[in-house]
Amino acid sequence: xxxxxxxxxxxxxxxxxxxxxxxxxxxxxxxxxxxxxxxxxxxxxxxxxxxxxxxxxxxxxxxxxxxxxxxxxxxxxxxxxxxxxxxxxxxxxxxxxxxxxxxxxxxxxxxxxxxxxxxxxxxxxxxxxxxxxxxxxxxxxxxxxxxxxxxxxxxxxxxxxxxxxxxxxxxxxxxxxxxxxxxxxxxxxxxxxxxxxxxxxxxxxxxxxxxxxxxxxxxxxxxxxxxxxxxxxxxxxxxxxxxxxxxxxxxxxxxxxxxxxxxxxxxxxxxxxxxxxxxxxxxxxxxxxxxxxxxxxxxxxxxxxxxxxxxxxxxxx
Amino acid sequence: xxxxxxxxxxxxxxxxxxxxxxxxxxxxxxxxxxxxxxxxxxxxxxxxxxxxxxxxxxxxxxxxxxxxxxxxxxxxxxxxxxxxxxxxxxxxxxxxxxxxxxxxxxxxxxxxxxxxxxxxxxxxxxxxxxxxxxxxxxxxxxxxxxxxxxxxxxxxxxxxxxxxxxxxxxxxxxxxxxxxxxxxxxxxxxxxxxxxxxxxxxxxxxxxxxxxxxxxxxxxxxxxxxxxxxxxxx
Lengths: 317, 234
Description:
The complex is a heterodimer. By secondary structure, chain A is mainly alpha-helical.
């Protein structure tokens, strides 16, 4: 237990150090506006990727409507600041709550479906959310909700990301998380062990949706405007790419993939028509050579680096 | 201890169990034998709560559990080893066993029970940290049984434990079943291997296309002309 606490403190320290370095570089203008934008996007994508991984990778429920929950978080959050003039933190929490409640309400009936059926249902769900928003004049309809203050900065995104990763990591290592993984591994056996499979599927779905809501609220307050066209199926597909590329069931995998894909996107910003081609080629290559994703369901950790650096204990002997 | 009364179970329009009644008394090994598709597994799944009977009663120690959610039935002390073992392949042997104790939170006693399981299945102890999917069929069956025992069931439901195992291993598994029974766990066993099942059971039922066609002590059935012809190949 104490080893674990020590390791958590160490990781937290490393995070703070990373934050300090990047923040300093932003202050002295070594990292310019363009790269700050990309760093913010990386953070948002990590939140989205890790939260989707909880649903798809750890609990084994194939959801492809994550952009829908992000949209709910973005709009609920934006309404809080633009229309109700509430502080940013309230907007983030309201975005999380809105997406989480919707995730719960929708998860309850749809999570009885399995495999392909669930995928189709969540795909439809993402579109329903988008079309619904499109038809609400209060939030701007098709022209989007404008005049959102830019409250999101590197600090908010960084700490929201760290919180998300720690929360989901600890959830997975708890007995709840074990129960979720047992559902993925074998639903019938999990049920026979006394695991309430519906409860855990809905729990994972709700938590995943809530964090997508956080990401949505951060997203809305960085770009001054939210627009239904930002949350199409293509967005859900991008998020799915992060999860599959990193490895279903690997948090560090999702983080790495989010960083990698955001950079690829940024590098290809000049050739928008090539972006999806290269994306698709990457995915095809991955499926051919490494179908389990970059990290499979393993995590990279300090232990892993020790092995790289000093060889295995066997070599030392 | 367990009394199944006249249950009718449907898969959509298919009438799978037509008024099946089974009684299991405390401390017994009771077996359900029958051909493929007779309804043996359906009966077990209905008892363990994975299927709901349309009509009929399932009394576990006097409480009607028909239609109750599976996880609540496990908490009452009725645990099932599903057909085809269904271990958690990407988890270690130890994690599989720990999940077996999912409904309990007496961590000290869980540890003791783990030791007991490892004593009973020394091969699982050797493979504690190995991924369960890499075990042999026999070891997986032992793991599935050990996992079910971790919930401290008073009655254990076994669905075709001999499936796909070599004859020598089948013998081993059946002697373990007898062992588990001797330490006080009641057993309801579904088997296609009628010969082995009748050799260890106290009581037996023969299922035929959704109906109980014969019942009696295992000895009576093993001696009966009908069973010998249809299931024992003699």
